[in-house]
Amino acid sequence: MTFLILSNGHGEDVIGASFAREILEQNPKIKVSAFPTVDDGKAYQDLGIEILGERKIMPSGGFIFHNFELFKKDIKAGFVQMTLRQIYALSKIRADVVLVVGDIYALFLSSFIKTKNRFYYQSLVSIHHAQKEKNKLANRYFMEHFSYFERAMMRHLVKQAYMRDGATADYLKNLGLSRVAALGNPMLDSLSGLAMLEHNHPKPTIAILPGTRKHANKALTIILASLSQLKTGQALVAWAGDSLSFDYSSWQKIASNSENGLI
Known about the structure:
The protein is an alpha/beta fold. It folds into two domains: 2-189, 3-Layer(aba) Sandwich (Rossmann fold), CATH 3.40.50; 193-263, no CATH class. It has ten helices and nine strands. The model has no long low-confidence stretch (mean pLDDT 83).
């Protein structure tokens, strides 16, 4: 049996790799391969999973529609040409089972793969995001809503679709999509290691996870500025590796481990 995982993003690759790990543990004879469309697929490489297709990290890091400047940078870096080459490569693939991890774009790309068994984990959109706000940016529509086109693809291409939460699954069922379920967020299942501290602070505590992308420092600055508006509370900032160059000399160090994790 051939099992292909198509994912479009760093986090999506991590989720896809966790699925691949479980599949191989249950049946090592299954031939699992991956097609990361946005990131370099390191999560799959670490497992020794065969990687198909062209890999090139764009300047936006996968956030091409977040603002126009990122869009222009990706176009100049060859996003259109890379996408066309990916579509061509996908059209040559036959797989017994395809698992799509991502959003409407990933599902669209998967439509070029020849398979009779396509499954879809929507890792981006939750009904909890769909707030009615005036002057909302149009580029965020596909990040926060299930468009007609995505629902149509789920109805006609997918054997089973999985959502991040029960409310989102119920929302889609009310729209007439019957093959929808919610099994939780696999991203959390991918966490490993021992707890670094026990929380016993009397004040309300907010955990801040700036991530490992290039914009982590800028994101942390904005988050901390927002927290300064709160009247009370305790913030815990946690990150791994040396990706954060933020000046934390005045902070209180609580815990660390051998992998440069710091809280």
